[in-house]
Write a structure and sequence with these properties.
The protein is of the alpha+beta class. The chain has one domain (about 35-170): L,D-transpeptidase catalytic domain-like, CATH 2.40.440. It has helices at about 1-20, 110-115, 150-160; strands spanning about 40-45, 50-55, 55-60, 85-90, 100-105, 125-130, 145-150, 165-170. An eight-stranded mixed beta sheet has the order 3-2-1-8-4-5-6-7. The longest helix has 19 residues, at about 1-20.
Length: about 170
């Protein structure tokens, strides 16, 4: 009898508490960015790309990196995403990865370091979308050293980034 009464009291209290929890409110999509930006920052440790205009953060995106992202890119095929100060040097609307923005890697210092070790520094580092024709969004770090977003995010980035935009990639 005492157990049944205890269960009943517990059930009534749990039901009362449950009614006080507000329902999940769906988040509204953010308004699209339309004005050009002047800085892209990528924080590799956080897997975040943030865009800025005049020092103000406008939006952040989750990103995927190279399949072996720790450390600065040292050679072709190492799966690392470069670190340092770069800029967007080209736009590719015919990319195999749903639009892509080229980063000016390797810089002269990257080339010198690779040459000193007798290796190629690699190249063709891009910020891009998902592979064309893929029905899934790839998760985790899967690129050869590039920075990947969803196709929808890449379309927004494509509209607001010009050649010459600064890109800073932090460890």
């Amino acid at each position: 009898m005492i157990r049944a009464l205890g269960f009943l009291v517990f059930s009534v209290l749990a039901l009362a508490a449950w009614h006080r929890i507000p329902p999940d409110v769906p988040t509204l999509p953010l308004p699209p960015l339309t004005e050009k930006i002047d800085l892209i920052e990528i924080d590799k440790s956080e897997r975040r790309l943030t865009v800025y205009r005049d020092g103000v953060s406008l939006r952040s995106y989750d990103v995927a990196l190279g399949f072996s992202p720790e450390g600065h890119k040292a050679k072709e095929g190492d799966g690392r995403t470069p670190e340092g100060r770069y800029w967007i040097d080209r736009r590719n609307p015919q990319s195999a990865f749903h639009l892509s923005l080229g980063i000016n890697y390797p810089r002269p210092l990257d080339q010198l370091k690779a040459a000193a070790h007798g290796v190629s520094p690699g190249g063709d580092i891009f910020i891009h979308g998902q592979p064309n024709g893929s029905a899934i969004v790839h998760r985790g770090d899967w690129t050869e050293g590039c920075i990947a977003l969803t196709n929808q995010e890449m379309e927004e980035l494509w509209r607001i980034v010009e050649v010459g935009t600064e890109v800073v990639i932090w460890p």
